[in-house]
Write a structure and sequence with these properties.
By secondary structure, this protein is an alpha+beta fold. The protein has a domain at 25-93 and 133-169: PH-domain like (Roll). The protein contains three helices and eight strands. Residues 34-169 form the DM10 domain. It is found in: Cytoplasm, Cytoskeleton, Cilium axoneme. This is DM10 domain-containing protein.
Length: 182
């Protein structure tokens, strides 16, 4: 079953490599890193608003597909999802329009009516907005990340994350930025 899926993926990758929206070896990377999660403790200080407080957060980075998830763990009994698992843009200015993350960009729609119209795909992706997303090399203890306009400070990480950074980048001792007592 897996070999059949790999064969399908390889032929699909060959067909779509001219489009530039699929990377070589994406399936192999996904299979190798599936289930590997970098976990960071963080906080978001919202005390300057009227009813704001200090939010203790858990930031999860999924190595398989470079997505992130942010949970509020201030309440010990419940955790609340702040940002669902998705790619997190480095710079947030506004919510993107419809079709922002579509694999094909349409240059123009030609024709007098909707039924008789044609569209032309942009083969070079010149009209696409080049959004940069967070990668695992952007996340370290003490880093301040922009989570959709909220300033989140990473304070600590788990043992797997420390080992990952030690093996990947040769970084040594990690100590927490500080511990928060509420």
């Amino acid at each position: 079953m897996l070999s059949r899926a790999l064969t399908w993926f390889q032929t699909a990758e060959n067909r779509s490599s001219k489009k530039g929206w699929r990377r070589e070896g994406a399936l192999a990377r996904f299979l190798q890193l599936d289930g590997r999660i970098l976990s960071f403790d963080a906080y978001w200080d919202d005390r300057d608003t009227e009813y704001g407080y200090l939010h203790l957060l858990k930031v999860l980075y999924y190595l398989a597909d470079d997505t992130m998830e942010v949970r509020d763990v201030t309440d010990k009994d419940h955790s609340f999802l702040i940002v669902r698992r998705s790619k997190l843009p480095k710079e947030f200015t506004e919510l993107g329009g419809l079709g922002r993350d579509d694999p094909v960009t349409l240059l123009n729609v030609l024709g007098p009516t909707v039924e008789r119209s044609r569209s032309l795909a942009d083969p070079l992706d010149l009209a696409r907005d080049k959004t940069e997303y967070f990668k695992h090399n952007n996340l370290t203890i003490g880093a301040v990340i922009n989570v959709f306009g909220r300033r989140v400070v990473l304070t600590d990480c788990d043992n797997f994350t420390k080992e990952f950074y030690r093996v990947t980048y040769g970084l040594g001792e990690y100590s927490p930025l500080f511990t928060l007592n509420i």
